Amino acid sequence: MRIGIVDLDTSHPQNWIPIERELGHEVVGVFDAGDVHPAGYAEKFAAEHGIPRVYASVAEMVPEVDCAIIHSCNWDTHVEKARPFVEAGKSVLIDKPVAGCKRDLDTIRDWMLDGARIAGGSSLRYCYETQEWLARPVEERGTPHTVLCGCGVDEFNYGIHAYAHLAGLMPGRPLAVRSLSETTPRRIQITWPDLTEGYVIVGKVAGWIPFWATVVTERGVAQFVADAGKLYRALLEACLPYLAGETDEPPVGPEEFVAPERCAVAARASRNSRNALLLINEPDEDDGYDGAAFAAEYRAMRYPGQGG
Question: What is the pTM of this model?
Answer without folding.
Answer: 0.97
